[in-house]
Give the backbone structure.
Amino acid sequence: MILNSRTPTSEKTRYQLSWRQAFFYLLLPIITYAASVSSSPSQISYHDHCSSIVPESPITPSRFPNFLFGGKENGYCLGGDRILSHEYSSDYKRLALQTRNIYRTEAEGVFMVEGSMNLQSSNKYYYGEDWREEENSLSGVFSTSFWGGSVAFLLHGFWSESSGKLCMVGTGSAYSREGDALDLAAVIKLNNVKNLSSITDLVIGSLESLNLASDPNFFEPISMVVFPQLNYKYTLVSDVGFESNFGFCSILTRPDNWFELEYPNDCYPSQNCSHFGGEIGYLPNFINIRGSKCPEDEQRFQVMIKFHNFSYVGYNQQSSPIMILVGEGWWDAENNLISIVACRILNTMESLANARIGDCSMRLSLEFPAILSIRSRSGYVGQIWSNKTVDDSGCFNRIMFKSPEDMTLGIPGLKYEYTEIDRAGKLCQKKNSAGNNGERYPNPKESFDMQFDMVVKNSNGVMGWGSASPFFVGDNLYNPFEYGTLSSISNARKIRPVNISYLISFTSEHGAEFGLSSGRHNIKVHISAEGIYDAKTGGLCMVGCRRLNSSIWIRKHESMDCEILVKFQFPPLGSKKEVYIRGSIESTRERSDPLYFNILQLSSSSTEAEKGRSIGTIEKPVH
């Protein structure tokens, strides 16, 4: 299996972050946890705060064989604004609850539990003008305040297997808004903690301060939900068998499974276009699908689906429970797709105290196309729908989704169909290949030089930065690593013109105009292109298709603009006179067309020609 994935390049940040600030924030969770360890949770009386919930009992040497909670991110909480930073009072925070030791006691079905809990606040890190474009990345910008971050507790208490109640007391540390260190004392009360769990089970509870309201260490009550992880029993998916060498589990368990949502043309946030209805006031643009407990030899898997208004985010990423689906899925070998049944988390708008899992009417499918083209280059495509009838509340039309074009699953037999080669030949004027004085140019089948970073300029001098990389060369997925050569010059003049497809993306500075795109913010442009490369001259001429953002294609009822001409001119290998790849991107539409844009000039460094420079590094723009 070949995975061709390119990590998006970070945009210019609105502010700059010093290394000292970054180092402090990286160490903050460790400092907080270490501070919490210095205070023993046993100093707080369990009897005074929990005996009415689960009476304590003397422990025995025998341990419980399983852990109730594994310690990874497994829940969400709401509240505690005094110790956790927040953008809005309704911000949800992540939590990780871990049980370290569980001992049997002399009371039947009662266990003594030792554990820890970490609460992660929703610090915002900015990209561009608005954190909603891209947020929560170490390469972005941290809040100027040191307040917030990670709050850790050490806990101990008792769990009743029959009642499903778990009560623990403990200590922790945090920082106030003013930056003062706080010594916290708290009690956590959880319900529905079971030895067995299923899709509809949800642990709910609260974390409450044991300090007086006048005490500076006091914090507001925190409600929480935790997803159970012990002895899971499938209830939505039947016990189906399959045989597959596809390796779908390795795909599902990747953290970067982002997909872009495509709503029907007549869909607006105020309409019932998704399972959210009008609850959140907007239509999310992306989803992340993450599988768990999915060994290749198993028949089924669990899955969590998160909806977001942004993608390519990393550290400290937040998602409110209302934006999450939990479900079960299986590999449908007969139809070569993944099928998922999913449920919503309900009653989470103002508090998590009454949260529950229900409405399991959501259905998802995820396919892997065997044939790609200039208009369809996503290695993963799928859809979301409801099994409710049209008259039922919550019914909505099917929503399509697809993976980014630069993330392609190279499975055996994957093919590319060239559909614009004839048009490219007519639009491109053939360059006379005679008289090249023996100069040699990159071999697209064996050279790294065909992929490059680039600087883009319009007629007003507005700059943009991006990259271009071959997608398919002839009938093969572009993979220069397979050949192990930085540049191939042998027999270059004997190579016939070859069909080639490209992935091109760039982000412009503010003020750029690109068809119907607004110039107020940075404009991200994605272009799929295909055409003919002549290794005798180094010339590449292609037809391009630009993916339009949702606001444009809803207005125009078009999802792509394929009236684009792209030209690259590669420099001769080993040349000392010309080391830059030069080119242009231009619209073939009439100037009066709303999608028309002025010609863009581009330039880049050719790594082999520059010899000593690293791959794809642009050291200076070309004027």
Notes: The two ends are 43 Å apart (CA to CA).
